[in-house]
Request: fold
Amino acid sequence: MTASEQPLSDKPIYNIGAVKRITEIPVATLRAWERRYGFPDAARTSGGHRLYTEGQIVRLQWVKARIDEGMQTRQAIEALREMEREGRFPEAPPPLVDDGVSAPDPSLEHFKTRLVAALLAGDLQGADQSLGEVLALYPLEALIPGLIRPVFTAIGEAWFAGEINVAQEHLATQFLHHRLVMWLMTGPPPRDVAPVVLACAPQEWHEGSLLMLGVLLRRKRWPVAYLGQAVPLPDLARYVRATQPLAVILVAMTATAAESLLAWPQWLPEAAAHARPIVAYGGHIFTAEPEWQARVPGIFLGPTLETGLLNLERLLQQAAPLKR
Reply:
C-alpha cells in the first residue's frame, strides 16, 4: 500500500536521530528550523527530547527537496503552509525520478503560459513569482523537460517570428540561464568520482540544453565541471589533462560548430584511443543532419535531452569504478 493510500500516522514516535537518518537533515538544522520558523512543532518526551510524526517527516522531506532545488528555507516552509491551508499538500513528497526524466506534464501548461508571458513582457518579478510557485509543486526532474525547455523554445519562436527583439530575447533567456546555473551549483552531495566536463563546441554559443543536462546530472549526484560557451579545443585539452574527468560532453547546434569538433581527437589522443575519458556529444545539428553522427568521432548521446541523459548515465555508471 502506498503512502497516498494509507493515512500517515500522527503519533509522535520518531526521535530526532531517526528523523535525521530518514530525511538526511542534520540535527542542528532540525532544531534551528523549529526555533526560527516553528517548523515542525515536535512533541516532547517527559525528558524534553523531540518526537516526530510520520506526517512531520514527510513535510520535512518535502521542504528539503524544495531547498535542494534552489528555494530559500523560509520560502519553502511558507509554500508548504500555503498548500496545507488550501488542502493541496500531498501525503508524500513528489517522487524524484530515478531512471531518466519524466515526460512533460500537461498540468504544467498553465505555468508555462504565465512564465512565457512574464518573460516576454520583461516582467522579471512576475516570472520569478511564477517559477517560485511551480518549484513548490514539482521537482526539477519534472520541471526541466516539462517547463524550462518549452519556455526556451517559446522564447526562441517569438524572436524568430519578430514578436520580440534581440534585447527582449536576451533578457528572457538570461533569466532562465541564471536559474539553471543556480540549480547547477546546488543540489545533493556529489558522488566521490571524477567530474563530468560539459562544454559547448568552439563557435557554439547556445548553451541552454547543456545547462539543462548539467542540472539533471547534478540531481543524480554526478559531479559536473561546466565550461560553458565556445570552448577552444586546446583549452579543453589542457583542462582535461589537469582534472582527469570521467567524461567530456560536447554540444553543437550548427554545422559550423559540429565541424569544429572533427579535430578533438588531435587534442585528446588518449580519449580517442582508449575512451578515457569518455567523449560524447549531442545537439540539434546531429538530429537535423544525421550524417554528422558518422563524421564526428565519439559517442552520439541521442536526439533528445531525455535519451541523452539515459545514455550518458549508463556510460558513467560503467566508467565510474575506474575513477573511484
